[in-house]
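In response to a reviewer's request, we include the raw inputs and outputs for one of the modeled complexes. The two entities were modeled together in a single run.
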Amino acid sequence: DIVMTQSPDSLAVSLGERATIHCRSSQGLFHSSHNKNYLAWYQQKPGQAPKLLIYWASTRESGVPERFSGAGSETYFSLTITSLEAEDVAVYYCQQYYSSPFTFGQGTKLEIK
Amino acid sequence: QITLKESGPLLVKPTQTLTLTCTFSGFSVTTSGVGVGWIRQPPGRALEWLALIYWNDFKQYSSSLETRLSISKDSSKNQVVLTMTNVDPADTAMYFCAYSAYYYDSNGYHSWFESWGPGTLVTVSS
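The model returned the following structure tokens for the whole complex.
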């Protein structure tokens, strides 16, 4: 199974500042024949179901604010929120879909400093 | 608009079989390109993918739970059912079903989860 490891486990950022969450996979997630990285990001607010933010490592889901962006390739990925808003307080998860079983990271809790 | 909702028992005794139902609207589980999956989350812990069923009845399971899981669909009722045998207190979790977007290539199915149900909390205790 591919192991997904996120860092840090928790992060406190001031409103309006940049927040970056990292995700590392134990195997490469890039498929050269398709030129795609098989990675998604989700946001889970307290008491709610997860919400898809990004797929193919950098494609924003419809309706997701532009301040959310994904980057990276192969085994190293990041999710950046360029200007943190209060509503962004949540736990963020990465998920690989390169191979089954599809696995999630342990989550990163984002709070306001 | 796609919506999903999970239902099932709130409390299950150890060694029993857990049956969860996902009832959805806004799509058909027999339409090409559709998948429905189950993911769980123990209290205060991370997400864990369990199983997926696709429009063509292809199924995928978590490697660690494969021997205990079974997923099926009933297109006439717009439902997907997950059964888990021999439950243990460690199976106490919020169980989510989700609409899966996927990409199919020579290496098989590659799935992420576009829309989620609100979840149903299942407690395993005697």
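As requested, we also summarize the result in words. Chain A touches chain B at residues 1, 31, 33-34, 36, 38, 40, 42, 44, 48-52, 55, 61, 93, 95, 97-107 (CB under 8 Å). Chain A has no helices and 13 strands.
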